[in-house]
Amino acid sequence: MTASDYISIGSLIIATAAFIYSYLTNTKKYELTSQYRTEVLNWYADTISILAHLRSEAISGFQDKSLKSQLMCKLSANIEIGRFYFPNVDKGDNYGSHKPIAYKGYRNIMLDFLVYSYQIFEKADSNKFIKHATSLQKHFTSCMYEVLDPKSFLTETKKHTNKTFSKNLSFEEYLSNDADNLKNYI
Fold first, then answer.
1. Is 171 a domain residue?
2. Residue from 73, 76, 146 nearest 111 by CA
3. How confident is the model at residue 126 (pLDDT cuts 50, 70, 90)?
4. Among 5, 41, 79, 139, which residue is least crowded by beta carbons within 10 Å?
């Protein structure tokens, strides 16, 4: 074997190792991203459930005061837990510098939607502010949608698992294409 043969074999080994390393680190990155996403989605699901219960109870005038208290405590706890996912924003102006570390700076907008919701449901006449609470929840969900970017996640999931989760159809398109099958369910 000549020196150029050894160089070629060495280059092939290095290229193969680089490919394997790239594949493994990309897979690990996907796994960590997926795990973090799952944690945030679980927190979000719990928070949305609390908000839905609070809205439902507010409409009926909070007949069960202990249930209101439990839900408000859960929402408060989820706001605090949310600080780990959505820390305060430091704009470099020393705002809140006298506060404990988790509270320095400006509260993340994601949590502001929850804090303002808390303040609505805290009111004795919270049933008058259901539209406001619903709007805050929609903004909260929209911010979460931006953070978790489900379209990109599904594309990345398809790349790693070869799975698709949607035919990318609207309900109207489905009805026009498969109306006979739907009649079986109605």
1. no
2. 76
3. very high
4. 5
